[in-house]
Each structure stands twice: as C-alpha cells, then as structure tokens.
Amino acid sequence: MTITTHDLRAWKAEGTRFAMLTAYDFPTAQILDRAGVPVLLVGDSVGRNVLGYPNELPVTMDDMLHHTKAVVRGAERAMVVGDLPFMSYQASVEDGVRNAGRLIKEGGAHAVKLEGPHEELVHRLSEIGIPAMAHIGLTPQAVLGLGGYRVQGRGEEAQRVLEQAHRLEKAGAFAIVLEAMPAELGTEITRELEIPTIGIGAGNGTDGQVLVVHDLLGVNESVPKLAKKYADVRAVITEAAEGYVRDVASGAFPDADHSYT
Hints:
Layout: H1 5-14, E1 18-22, H2 26-34, E2 39-42, H3 46-49, H4 61-74, E3 79-83, H5 93-105, E4 111-113, H6 119-128, E5 132-137, H7 143-146, H8 157-171, E6 175-179, H9 183-192, E7 197-200, E8 208-211, H10 213-217, H11 233-250
Parallel strand pairs: 1-2, 1-8, 2-3, 3-4, 4-5, 5-6, 6-7, 7-8
Helix pairs in contact: 2-4, 5-6, 6-8, 8-9
C-alpha cells in the first residue's frame, strides 16, 4: 500500500519521526523506495542538482512532469510529492489549480508542494481533493527577493513565520516544510500545529526531515550547512570512470570475460 497523508498524520500523533528525500529519476526512486524512504519529493531542486541551472527559477512544468513520471514509475510504496515550479501558480489561483492537477493527472504524483503563504490556493486544492504540502521559511523560488539563500525567522520575523504556518494549516495543508530557520522556531511551529512538519535546516524538533539526495550521497561538490553527507558517491564515480579510461587505453577492457565467442 502506498503511504498516504493519513499515515503522516498518524505518525505525528504517535511521535514517529519520518524521512523524506528528493528523487528525480527512476533508478534513484526505486532504490530509495526499497530502502524504506516513505516520502519522495520530486523537487524543483532538480534545476540545480540535475539540469545544471544556478537556481530553481528556470525549471518548467514540462521539466517537473518529466521527472515526476520517472519517479512514480520507480516508487511502489513511497508517497510521491511533486513540486509546483516558479510561476506555475504565483500569477493566479487558476494557474495553480490547473498545474497541480497536471502533476497529479499526468505526472502521477500523490500530492503537490508549493512555496509561500498561498492560503487561497491551498484551500482550493484541498476542496477539490489534491493534497497540498506547504513550504515556509527559506523559499528558494523567492531567492532573488530574499537576497540569497538566507536563514529566515530570526528575531521579530519568527512571529510572521509562525502565523504563516497556522494560516496554511487552517487552509488545508496536510503537511508543511520548514526550511532554514532557527531550531527553536521549528520546534515551536511543530508543537503548535496538528499537521506534520518536515524540516530542512530547522533543527531536530520537527516531525520529519528532508534532504536533497545529491547532498546525502555526496554527488555535489559542496554540501550546505543544513545537509549531511552520508556517502561520497562523487569519489566512487570518479574512481570508476578513471579506471575504465585506463583499461580502455591499455586494452585491458574488454577482456575475454566481457567478450562473445
């Protein structure tokens, strides 16, 4: 059975913490799903981590649909959440509803995620049966307006972020991502909300945690403070590629074991 929004809500009630990871392709989704990751986020972070963009802003709906379809094909049990990319919902609620519907109907996602205090859109999606995951704090799609990837919710700003969380819960969000904020604020929001919170750089007091899989695996050259590198896949790939180049140059590959008679 696929993980559902009800499972996440039950885990919060039970005090069971859960993990979410990004996934952008079939084999990664399959591996993460079989490893027991219950929620896979097809994030617009695909722009920086896969497509070579400097930030998330150039990512399109076609990009998100392409990668969401691949992840859905690889996931048997995990809930797949598709990100609404920049300007797919900011211009109007109608745009947001239409594009959220595409992620569900065409992409096969089980839920969508959207950044910022878009309570009206969250409410509308809830009304028509599209589960909406909210996202506050550092919202990468607003990186230009924020002046960079900066910690949010410090000092007097904490109350504003807390109020956003309450409004999004009231609007019908089934969960909320808390990004790059003081740990104390992440814990306070988690304590006050009935819906699950998923932190990334928001301390260990949230109900769940999310990381970019390329940071987790050490694929990226550098890892931000909020992430932990659990492997050095970049080094493994480099070593394998260098070994292959040497074997081809020397004639060691292909050998008899890798040739047909």
